[in-house]
Specification:
Number of helices of chain B: 11
Shape of chain A: flat
Number of helices of chain A: 9
CATH topology of chain A: Arp2/3 complex 21 kDa subunit ARPC3
Structural class of chain B: mainly alpha
Radius of gyration of chain A: 18 Å
Oligomer: heterodimer
Distance between the termini of chain B: 40 Å
Number of domains of chain A: 1
Number of domains of chain B: 2
Largest sheet of chain B: 2 strands, antiparallel
Number of strands of chain B: 2
Largest sheet of chain A: none
Largest interface: A-B, 59 and 75 residues
Helix content of chain B: 55-70%
Shape of chain B: flat
Strand content of chain A: under 5%
Distance between the termini of chain A: 10 Å
Chain lengths: 252, 273
Amino acid sequence: MHIVTFAFATAISYVLAVVSSLIFPVLGAPGVSALYVAAAIYVPLGIWMGLWGCMAGYISCFFLGLYPSGYSLVQSFVWSWADFIEAFVPALIYRALKADLDFTVKRPRAAKLLPLFVSSGSIFLLLGIAIQVLWGATYGEPFTTIYAAMVYIGTALAAVGIILGLLAGNARTWMAQILSIIGAGLCSGLWGAGTLTIFNFPPPLPAELFWPVFIGWVLGDFIVLSVISTALLVALTPVFKRTGLLVRGWWA
Amino acid sequence: MPTILGELAGIEAKSKRYMGLHVLAKIVIPLSISLSLPFAKEPPQALALVAVSAAACVAAGIPLSAVKKYVAVIVSMSAFIVLAFSLFTYIPGRVLYEATLWKVQAEKGVFEWKIAVTDASLSYSAAFIFRIFAMILSATLLLASVTDRDLVWGFFSLRMPFGVCVAASLFFRGIHLFVSDFYTIREAMSARGVDFERTPLAKRFMLYANALTPLLSLMITRSYEVSMALESRGIAPGSRSASGYHLYRMRRSDYAAVAAGIALTLAFVAWGG
């Protein structure tokens, strides 16, 4: 049943990937979406079904790379590992923290506010770091002040989000979920934007476009993972447990 | 049997001779174009690769108008590439146009953000844009000539386990099933009073996002039914086929196509390496 679910989930992810990259494109970077809804399918699937979910992410992204993005076979083969990583990081975090998949919500308001604070906090942090790397390190003031302000605001917002997460329900589970959202977005963004601009055979875009693509990628992932993916985890984890699809290790 | 791109966008290779090639040969040709791409660094090399890709598409009977399906990709990427080489970086060369957009007196010097178009930046942009065409034509050649049956038969001929063959087949069937499930759920939502036409975009997005929960539930139910059907036929994921209804062997023309692909890559390695 795992193979069949994996095949169907890959198909769903592919359709959603195509739709997201057409409706919410990051202009100039085909296949990159500012709201990549497909991630909401294969990332929870990685948490539920281990490497099956990661493979669903990889294969759907591979076909997305070929059509409608138009990357060559080799470019798509390299680039698609971004979605494998995106599903693998949360699966790894949940397994490393031995977090129980208990998404029972004790305080619904805290659970609703959690994505807002974690996403906005992470976005401020990311933009602050980008400003410092691109201009602050070379030119100093006023860029360093902007960087410091954004890092302080971002950290404060993310900290509020983490506290809300701890209040929402099982503290370890929600902490794993917050770390998963941030880790998956950043790691897949690094690989995805990197293989589009810096290292591939050849990169389809110039290296100068790394930061715009990376920021677009990570912003989209934070929003989708915190809003849709978290909602799916809450709603469907009992179904996966009941049907025996839940994988405790990496394979079944 | 429609090809992958035939099902997705209605574009198919028309040449019977090309479609009669072994799946390995049909994969090796676009793969060799893809492997030649890193060596097409200068505009003439990239242009030559575009010509080769276009010739391969024509030989396969794929209309070059298929590129129209990628027009948004070509326009957006080209614009982005030109912007990257004129707005985000300065490529030294003969300056054709220069304008300062923003100037700030910073602590360690003056920060200037300017548009600078040089002959070298135009040359870089041209190479990147030609490569996009080659890249898109190679992807079109692959997807417009390979059918899902080709892939499944290919896996069978490689003695892959049934699990892999069934998963490949179900992936392509799953695309249609998902789309039909989506319309069913959309109609159910409309029957309950949701007016998609008049709903604002942000709210519509959330409505569609909410539809993912029943869609995934349906997927699990369908997976259960399909896996039961497979089990009842005695198909285990790890079992392998001892024989098949279809003989899928490489012929002389397939070996010739593979050799041509390898020769193309080697030629570009020698030219641009």
